[in-house]
């Protein structure tokens, strides 16, 4: 298992100590130093070249976001903060995750696990947020999802389907089904059709999750996903689906 040389940047000493305590059992996390503010963080990042930083948002004189703007190369970033209103901004600078204080051990475990999956799709450049606005989102992209007080940064490869529910869309991934106030059409416009297929008026499915296809009523099809869900593909869409999936 790869070891990630890690720097903790937070103006509160107790917060740094708590995080070090929570991280001590993770063999993949090697804490090499800590910093008390953004200026010190810049200096130590340039000097030590860490693989990963745990970064607070609200710090005196220079916020965590301002600190990142002063870096030529940005390491992997996990934000640790008491304020959920910055989650979307964290997503826009391609952060690996966004963990709320007080830190929940299980939530921290989820964040650390992301270090060991698909390392190569991390882009250490603020330009990533700009380029992605002009192209479809592929299964390798990470997206920010917020439902009430809960926030996730997830790879689209984990999203097995999306379901329209009135003015909302239910997003299925892992064991979660958060609701987002958007139309299914808006998701269809952003998602890469090479991976995500509009099965009918209510569902978009990730074709990489399909395990079984069978003929259904009136010339339609029914697909089964890895988690056992079954989705009907309408007769009209079944024609497109067969064209896409045939040799």
Question: CATH first level of the largest domain: which class?
Answer: Alpha Beta
Number of strands: 15
Backbone shape: elongated
So, the CATH homologous superfamily of the largest domain? Response regulator
Mean of pLDDT: 86
For the report, how would you describe the main beta sheet?
A: 5 strands, parallel
How large is the share of residues in beta strands? 25-35%
Order of helices and strands: EHEHEHEHEHHEEEEEHEEEEEH
What is the topology, as strand order, of the major beta sheet? Answer: 2-1-3-4-5
Counting copies of identical and different chains, the oligomeric state is: single chain
Count of alpha and pi helical runs = 8
Architecture of the largest domain, CATH level 2? 3-Layer(aba) Sandwich
Computed CA radius of gyration, to the nearest angstrom = 21 Å
From the 3D structure, determine the CATH topology of the largest domain.
Answer: Rossmann fold
Which class best fits the helix and strand makeup?
Answer: alpha/beta
Measure the end-to-end span: 39 Å
């Amino acid at each position: 298992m790869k070891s990630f040389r890690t720097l903790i940047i937070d103006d509160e000493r107790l917060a740094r100590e708590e995080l070090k305590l929570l991280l001590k059992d993770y063999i993949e996390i090697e804490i090499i130093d800590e910093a008390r503010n953004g200026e010190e963080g810049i200096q130590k990042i340039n000097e030590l070249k860490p693989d990963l930083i745990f970064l607070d948002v609200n710090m005196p004189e220079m916020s965590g976001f301002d600190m990142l703007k002063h870096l030529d190369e940005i390491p992997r970033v996990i934000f640790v903060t008491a304020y959920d209103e910055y989650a979307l901004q964290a997503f826009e600078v391609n952060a690996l995750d966004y963990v709320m204080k007080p830190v929940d051990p299980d939530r921290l475990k989820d964040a650390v696990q992301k270090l060991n999956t698909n390392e190569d799709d991390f882009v250490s450049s603020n330009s990533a947020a700009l380029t992605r606005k002009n192209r479809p989102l592929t299964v390798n992209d990470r997206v920010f999802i917020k439902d009430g007080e809960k926030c996730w940064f997830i790879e689209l490869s984990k999203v097995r389907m999306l379901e329209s529910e009135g003015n909302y869309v239910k997003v299925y991934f892992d064991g979660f089904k958060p609701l987002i106030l958007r139309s299914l059409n808006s998701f269809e416009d952003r998602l890469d059709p090479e991976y995500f297929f509009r099965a009918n008026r209510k569902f978009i499915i990730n074709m990489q999750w399909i395990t079984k296809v069978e003929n259904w009523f009136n010339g339609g099809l029914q697909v089964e996903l890895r988690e056992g869900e079954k989705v009907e593909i309408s007769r009209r869409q079944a024609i497109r689906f067969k064209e896409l999936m045939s040799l």
